[in-house]
């Protein structure tokens, strides 16, 4: 059966491989595992593309009937992408060995040979050398590019000091649905001579450089594919909104939800992240900062309503910001609902300022359906 499958593969590659040596290898032992192990090096020797350079055309040293180190599996260090360790792992499945034989050219082309880290990173999607901006020390405070070994997986973008097995991991950027990637632009290439790829994460921003445009595009596409595959990231406020919607007919459960989650209630302190998710690289435009930063600043502005005797100008500023940045409308609605839920003194002048701004928002903007239901 193994010989028949190998013959079919040879036909697909328009080659003719003699299989007398295959029968000899398989019949040399009654042990299926041992026969399978002895067959593999013969198969590789039969094709010159696998390293055997014997004068015997397409037969190699095995087909010629000569003893050769390539027929001894114990001396085979690597058969072009098939380490001895991997061959021995296949022996544990000798009963299913037919599915492991043989390797077609299309499959073989996907077996990459690089320096060391491949077998220790089975989840790696893409890897290679890229340059990244690093900040110098006190004597050299400017940014300068430095070469690192980058590895892209389904969960993160990591970079190492080198490609060896013992190389130290120097940093990692966790990839979520809120991450984003900027495509390389010609302006940066004209100024620096490099094509730049910018990856925005929650805490870090990696600016990567390469001299080749096709390599930069390859990395951008791979990164975007990983980001798109991620499930939408939800904030704690969104998750609690779902719980409230599911239990809106149970007052006791609702009281427990509000009691156990201060993020839903009035707070006199600041917030350090938006109540709703925003892409990490989302820019406000028109002189504004990023959406995440603007959302946090707006909450601080809302809290100033409690201290002002005439809050009209501040309210106008909030409305103008929402007009310029429509993506923040839902966020401001959530912040106002939060500050009008269980205030210290219900109906006090400070509490009424929040209600007045909530009324102005309701007359001026329409929230999305989930926020409207909330």
UniProtKB/TrEMBL annotation:
Organism: Micrurus surinamensis
Domain PH, chain residue ranges per copy: 123-228
A Pfam family annotated for this UniProt entry: PH
Alphabetical list of InterPro entries matching this protein: Actin_motor_Myosin, MyTH4_dom, MyTH4_dom_sf, PH-like_dom_sf, PH_domain
MyTH4 domain boundaries: 266-374
Record protein name field: PH domain-containing protein
GO CC terms, sorted: cytoskeleton
């Amino acid at each position: 059966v193994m010989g028949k499958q190998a013959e079919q593969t040879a036909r697909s590659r328009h080659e003719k491989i003699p299989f007398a040596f295959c029968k000899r290898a398989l019949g040399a032992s009654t042990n299926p595992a041992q026969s399978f192990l002895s067959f593999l090096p013969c198969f590789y020797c039969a094709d010159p593309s696998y390293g055997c350079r014997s004068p015997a055309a397409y037969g190699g040293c095995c087909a010629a009937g000569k003893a050769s180190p390539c027929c001894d599996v114990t001396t085979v260090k690597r058969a072009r992408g098939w380490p001895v360790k991997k061959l021995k792992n296949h022996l544990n499945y000798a009963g299913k060995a037919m599915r492991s034989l043989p390797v077609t050219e299309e499959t073989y082309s996907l077996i990459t040979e690089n320096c060391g880290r491949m077998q220790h990173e089975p989840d790696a999607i893409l890897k290679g050398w890229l340059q990244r901006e690093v900040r110098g020390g006190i004597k050299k405070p400017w940014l300068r590019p430095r070469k690192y070994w980058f590895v892209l997986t389904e969960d993160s973008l990591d970079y190492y000091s080198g490609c060896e097995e013992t190389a130290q991991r120097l940093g990692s950027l966790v990839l979520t649905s809120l991450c984003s990637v900027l495509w390389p632009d010609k302006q940066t290439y004209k100024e620096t001579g490099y094509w730049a790829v910018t990856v925005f994460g929650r805490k870090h921003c990696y600016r990567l450089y390469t001299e080749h445009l096709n390599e930069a595009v390859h990395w951008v596409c791979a990164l975007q594919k990983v980001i798109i595959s991620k499930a939408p990231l939800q904030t704690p406020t969104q998750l609690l909104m779902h719980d409230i919607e599911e239990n809106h007919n149970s007052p006791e459960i609702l009281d427990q939800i509000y009691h156990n989650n201060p993020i839903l209630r009035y707070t006199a302190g600041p917030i350090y992240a938006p109540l709703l998710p925003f892409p990490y690289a989302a820019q406000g435009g028109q002189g504004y900062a990023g959406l995440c930063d603007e959302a946090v600043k707006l909450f601080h502005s809302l809290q100033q309503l409690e201290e002002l005797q005439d809050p009209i100008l501040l309210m106008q500023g909030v409305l103008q910001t929402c007009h310029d940045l429509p993506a923040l409308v839902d966020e401001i609605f959530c912040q106002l609902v939060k500050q009008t839920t269980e205030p210290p003194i219900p109906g006090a002048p400070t509490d009424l300022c929040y209600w007045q701004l909530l009324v102005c928002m309701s007359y001026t903007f329409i929230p999305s359906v989930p926020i409207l239901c909330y």
